[in-house]
Design brief:
The complex is a heterodimer of chains A (about 675) and B (about 290). With about 675 residues, chain A is α/β, with parallel strands linked by helices. Chain A has 5 domains: about 5-125, Rossmann fold; about 145-235 and about 320-335 and about 510-575, FAD/NAD(P)-binding domain; about 250-305, no CATH class; about 335-505, FAD/NAD(P)-binding domain, CATH 3.50.50.60; about 585-650, Alpha-Beta Plaits (2-Layer Sandwich), CATH 3.30.70.20. A 5-stranded parallel beta sheet of chain A has the order 10-7-6-18-29. A 5-stranded parallel beta sheet of chain A has the order 20-27-21-22-23. In chain A, α5 (about 110-125) runs antiparallel to α18. Helix content of chain B is about 50%, strand content about 10%. In chain B, α2 (about 15-25) runs parallel beside α15 (about 255-265) and α4 crosses α6. Chain B has 17 helices and 8 strands. Chain B folds into 2 domains: about 1-120, Glutathione S-transferase Yfyf (Class Pi), Chain A, domain 2 (Up-down Bundle); about 140-290, Rossmann fold (3-Layer(aba) Sandwich), CATH 3.40.50.11810. With about 290 residues, chain B is α/β, with parallel strands linked by helices. The chains are: A alpha/beta (about 675), B alpha/beta (about 290). The interface of A and B includes residues 351, 353, 474, 476 and 481 of A.
């Protein structure tokens, strides 16, 4: 190859301010192999691309180097332009003289110019060894897995199912619905949470395109975009939900009433065989081993006797089922910061000084939601847990954990300002002579109608807001003594409260890290899953075919979680809109003749893209073992190339020969 | 034999000489020697750091320099104000060569800030709770103590890095080794009024009154402290508090060292307990038994 075109971009002034573009172009034209060198103000613009196309044709160029910005920015643009002119797009390379030169060095200095020429020369040397490549084609299974059946998972599942794709929805709990199913009314419109959610839950349960696995977890994930093999563990429920008619006779007759209700966050007790809440989907019971007399002492068995449908099975076992999907949506949601002294992770210090877990009338926000809820343990009347009295003075404390580095969480949980304002309002609507006090750091009410909502809580419903922190809560003579500071008044505040509600920080759901490792997703130091790009790829992840939505990504409220879920579903639809998938062919390949079968690459590959393979002769005798790259999985990182002791692995588009030539170009 | 350097600070040589007597008496049977720093000076207390930063660094630094000069690696400062000031300066000097040089010039002795500072509780932890338990002669089963930490034993938390600042437990652990029980109560880390003793007596009385009231309400028959200032406010001011609020607290306030000494078999006069303002015998198991018959 000796017919290379070099196209040097001004990038407006970004590059042109550092060089005399004519002189730079002349210097580049002298590089051996360069057929023509041209500069232009905006090479990425349509006239710029037209220039490239025209030169490819007129000069019969065999390869192209565009000297401009980072390939992250415009490599696709220029490869498409070249392809339009009939040149294989993988014969186009970019020399980054903007980020790596003009932006960071003194303009017009000799060394700056020399560096730009060197970068371009290096790239010319590389492109001389480029090979024409074809994209890899991968088949595509047009079914999606959604992990998590909270509001985000429900939204994503319904969007996908309604657009005609089959959805496998896996929920860890016995019912879908997530946290939202337990909420009272939602800000800023005060519409009833269950009223808007439960029809959607029913829709999920009845949708012909949704296969629902409740009380199930993702056991393993294999494969790659378009071709995931999912193993799901259906945990033993001891009730056959196919046979069960949902008559609930077992539930009515079960004599045990010991276990704290998960749905009411421990505010009530539930039976050993139970339906988590009346609107559960599926509306089928489950037996809790740890509170059932049959399992604890081999007594009772009442449910078995009363069940007309023969649905009770004490010998039920966990079952593993497999599903093939092409895309995965993760919507695992959140959990609350552990407020008390006991912490599973030393990083989180807890708030022992608030007496949560010690004083029964110090509760968290989700528990207060249950106290407000018509379906809650008090039927929607606000009664405090200790003695059932109606609290006349309630203190709400915001930022319990959030924005408190001393307690291990620097981030803002975002929704607490809003739901705390809502709590004061709903409390006032139910207890007219009651007084709500709020301790807050700042009020963060960005959102449609949000600030107005908080003002309404303060101005119309009379919540008293104290800007400051609470140092300690103690109990004296049946009152909770809340001592804090009002930093605006510059004075300490002591409030004798009947009930204290702590707005604990949002943390990612338990087990999300194990799931992230199974799917190979990135996460931050707090365990929130990482998006691919914070602005432009907010629901994509760095693993192709895997999308995230809802509070597993960061604290967010219902509207945001729902919007993100629809976005994730939309991205899956984009993926599924194609007949098959194409992938960039710049992947690793093994020279199987020289491979020594040490499998260092197999162990090193972060994408599990390399397998052990056998080479057999025509008679079927094993000749040797070799490593073999699955091009559908390989992300082209090159780690295998670095570790191979026999130099048997190479990366298309970034071969060792090319790198050697690039170095040669420099010296 | 264990030996610690000893920095009594002003209080133990003045208004709180009972504390010094208690500390000295109880450490002897535990086989611990104290070597008082020769020519020690004031730590600066509350006054220095409100007036002049370099003074607030130099006063404790002079004492740290004396300890280094004498080869003391562990320095016992029974007053939490002193130990906090010493630790604060230790941390300031560590990793700041410029400050070390400047301060060394001011105090006319080289100082590196490497001496380990121990408060009263840490001295007992250093001796070993198991060893104390093994040495107990008279278990204090009649003692139901409210352990009172006040402000400076655990705070500022970043500087001291001792115990949980909101829910300390170290005194309780020592007490349980003595056979005493500790009550759960609400005011273990509240302020007693501290240095406002003279300037704003009503504040001290109010704060200390709350502490005494809460301890009694939670079933304590005595308070245990490890700070001369706390002791002064809670013990000496009790008569004032009683008058002001029309109550009769009559609450014994012990230093932690008092109770250890008593468990080791020392009598109260040896420990200086008779010098406290409130002195009353706690019901001992013997008297309880006598009453029952």
């Amino acid at each position: 190859m000796g017919r290379i075109g070099v196209f040097i971009c001004w990038c407006g002034e970004n590059i042109a301010r550092a060089f005399d573009m004519d002189e730079l172009t002349e210097a580049v034209a002298e590089i051996p192999g360069v057929r023509c060198a041209i500069h232009y103000k905006y090479m990425c613009s349509e006239p710029g691309q037209a220039l490239i196309r025209e030169k490819i044709r007129s000069e019969k160029l065999e390869a192209v180097v565009v000297a401009s910005c980072s390939p992250h920015m415009h490599l696709k643009t220029f490869r498409a332009a070249a392809a339009a002119a009939g040149l294989n797009p993988y014969l186009v390379e970019m020399a980054n003289i903007r980020e790596q030169c003009s932006w960071v060095h003194e303009p017009y200095e000799d060394e700056t110019v020399a560096k730009a020429v060197s970068i371009i020369r290096m790239t010319v040397h590389k492109v001389l060894r480029n090979r024409a490549l074809e994209p890899i084609r991968v088949p595509l299974t047009k079914r999606a897995l959604v992990v998590g059946g909270g509001v985000a998972g429900i939204q994503a599942s319904l969007d996908l199912a309604d657009s005609g794709y089959e959805v496998v929805l896996v929920e860890r709990e016995p019912s879908i619905g997530g946290k939202m199913a337990g909420l009272s009314e939602t800000f800023p419109t005060l519409d009833c949470s269950q009223c808007i959610l439960t029809p959607r839950m029913v829709e999920v349960g009845q949708h012909p395109n949704i296969r629902l696995y409740t009380y199930s977890e993702v056991e393993s994930v294999e494969g790659f975009v378009g071709n995931f093999n999912i193993t799901i563990r259906q945990k033993a429920r001891y009730v056959d939900i196919e046979k069960c008619t949902g008559c609930l006779e077992c539930w009515n007759r079960c004599p045990s009433r010991e276990a704290p209700s998960e749905f009411d966050y421990g505010l009530t007790k539930r039976k050993a065989i139970y339906v988590p809440f009346p609107q559960a989907v599926p509306a089928r019971p489950i037996i809790d081993l740890n509170s059932c007399a049959k399992f604890l002492r081999n007594e009772c068995g009442t449910c078995l006797k009363v069940c007309q449908a023969n649905a009770i099975n004490f010998d039920d076992q966990d079952m593993l089922v497999t599903e093939q999907v092409g895309a995965i949506v993760v919507a695992t949601g959140y959990r609350m910061y552990d407020i008390g002294r006991e912490q599973e992770n030393a990083k989180y210090a807890g708030y022992g000084e608030y007496g949560y877990g010690q004083y029964r009338d110090v509760i968290d926000s989700l528990q207060f939601e249950r106290l407000l809820s018509a379906s809650g343990p008090t039927g929607g009347e606000v009664k405090r847990p200790s003695d059932g009295a109606v609290p006349k003075k309630v203190v709400f404390i915001a930022c319990v954990g959030s924005r408190d580095n001393a307690k291990g969480i620097p981030y803002c949980s975002k929704i607490c300002c809003m739901y705390t304002a809502k709590h004061t309002m709903l409390y006032k609507h139910k207890v007219h002579d009651g007084q709500a006090h709020v301790f807050y750091m700042d009020i963060r009410a960005g959102g449609k109608g949000y600030e107005e909502f908080v003002r309404r809580a303060i101005e119309k419903d009379g919540a008293r807001y104290h800007r400051g922190r609470v140092s300690k809560i103690t109990e004296e003579n049946g009152k909770l003594i809340v001592r804090g500071a009002d930093t605006l008044a510059g004075a300490p505040v002591t409030i004798e409260a009947d009930l204290v509600v702590l707005a604990a920080a949002m943390r990612p759901a338990t087990g999300v890290l194990e799931l992230a490792q199974k799917i190979k997703l990135g996460y931050d130091e707090f365990g929130f899953l990482s998006e691919s790009h914070p602005k432009l790829r907010p629901v994509e992840t760095n693993t192709a075919g895997v999308y995230i939505c809802g509070a597993c990504h960061a604290p967010k409220d219902i509207p945001e979680a729902v919007a993100q879920a629809s976005a994730a579903a939309g991205k899956v639809q984009v993926l599924f809109s194609k007949g098959e998938l194409t992938r960039e062919p710049e992947v690793a390949s093994v020279n199987e003749q020289t491979c020594a079968a040490c499998f260092a690459c197999v162990r090193t590959c972060p994408y599990l893209a390399i397998d052990k393979a056998e080479i057999r002769d025509r008679q079927g005798n094993l000749r040797k073992m070799t490593a073999r790259v699955n091009p559908s999985l390989c992300m082209g990182c090159g780690t295998c190339v670095a570790v191979c002791p026999s130099k048997s692995v190479d990366l298309e588009g970034f071969s060792e020969e090319q790198i050697y030539e690039m170095v040669n170009g420099l010296i | 034999m264990l030996e610690f350097g000893y920095y009594p600070g002003c209080a133990l040589h003045g208004s709180s000489s009972d504390y010094e007597q208690s500390v000295q008496a109880c450490l002897k049977p535990l086989g611990v020697g104290l070597k008082e720093l020769d020519d020690w000076i004031c730590c600066g207390a509350t006054a220095a750091h409100t007036l002049n930063h370099m003074l607030a660094v130099s006063l404790p630094a002079r004492n740290l320099a004396l300890a280094e000069r004498d080869g003391v690696t562990e320095l016992f400062a029974p007053c939490p104000m002193c130990s906090m000031e010493l630790i604060k300066v230790n941390r300031a000097l560590d990793g700041n060569a410029g400050l070390r040089q400047r301060v060394s010039e001011i105090v006319e002795l080289p100082v590196t800030g490497k001496t380990q500072i121990l408060n009263l509780i840490q001295v007992f932890q250093r001796i070993g709770v198991d060893k104390i338990r093994a040495t107990v002669k008279k278990p204090l089963s009649h003692v139901k103590a409210a352990c009172y930490y006040g402000c400076l034993l655990t705070r500022p938390a970043d500087t001291l890095q001792f115990d949980d600042p909101e829910h300390p437990r170290s005194m309780e652990t020592v007490l349980e080794a003595l056979g005493a029980s500790a009550v759960e109560w609400n005011y273990a880390t509240e302020c007693c009024g501290a240095g406002l003793t003279m300037a704003r007596e009503e504040t001290v009385c109010e704060l200390s009154h709350r502490i005494l009231t809460n301890a009694a309400a939670h079933g304590a028959n005595c308070l245990v402290v490890a700070c001369p200032m706390c002791h002064t406010n809670l013990d000496m001011k009790q008569a004032d508090i009683d008058r002001r609020y029309g109550v009769h607290h009559d609450m014994m306030v012990y230093y932690l060292s008092d109770l250890i000494g008593m468990a080791l078999g020392l009598d109260e006069t040896q420990l200086g307990v008779d010098k406290h303002f409130v002195v009353k015998p706690l019901e001992s198991p013997a008297t309880q038994a006598a009453e029952m018959h």
